[in-house]
Description:
Layout: E1 2-9, H1 13-27, E2 31-35, H2 46-50, E3 55-59, E4 67-71, E5 75-80, E6 94-101, E7 104-112, H3 122-141, E8 148-153, H4 177-188, E9 192-193, H5 194-198, E10 207-208, H6 214-217, E11 220-221, E12 224-228, H7 230-233, E13 236-241, E14 257-262
Helix pairs in contact: 3-4
Amino acid sequence: MTLTVAAWNVNSIKARLPNVLDWLKDKAPDVACLQEIKCQDEGFPRLEIEELGYNVETVGQKSYNGVALLSKRPIEEVALRALPGGEDDEQARYVEAVIAADSGPVRVASIYLPNGNPAPGPKYDFKLAWMKRLKDRAEALLAFEEPVILAGDYNVIPRDSDVHDAAAWEGDALILPATRDAFSAIKWLGYADAFEQVDGRAHQYTFWDYQAGAWPKNNGIRIDHLLLSPQAADRLKSVEIDKEPRGREKASDHTPIIGVFEL
Length: 263
């Protein structure tokens, strides 16, 4: 049996709800990790999504940030609603749950990593500190020796070939060497970038800005990722960047990335 896991920064669930519902009906992923829902938990359209057969867990925040995890499979445990190590961090950016799969439990996290701009500055310092906390959690998760899928908007451009014009992004927090080093540090623990593992082509994007005709010009960046523990990477069958939602009316500036696993 397969397990389909998707990550999508919806850029406001209320503004994009018709698109999100259409996409969930069409693609019907087993697990959908949403970012930037931009609402508090009580404002999330739970009933509409539950009607499609999903169990729903959210970590919301008024007007900003916010993550959700939707699962057609039973959610055995909600392990975390915040990333450890940030006692003063009130930003809603992380939810982690254990999902029941045919082969056993699968741990999935929906992640919205800080943007970090302008860099240098306090926001960039926060981004790097958050990435260090994520690395610590990712390392701890390896001890479970189970499939782990860390899915979401990382706000990291891993390679120059993941951006339409690397020179135009020079100095941006998403592409700075320290950002890439922090992302690589998670991979060096033993995590695989799902897209790079099964595809890896240059200039395949998950985000196109609303400005300067970025979408029709295909001036995009790849910043939405699925990072996989060895047990998940071994079972990865395919990855798709689903561009169709980005071309819709009132679209999010991100589009989903979908991994299919034999789990």
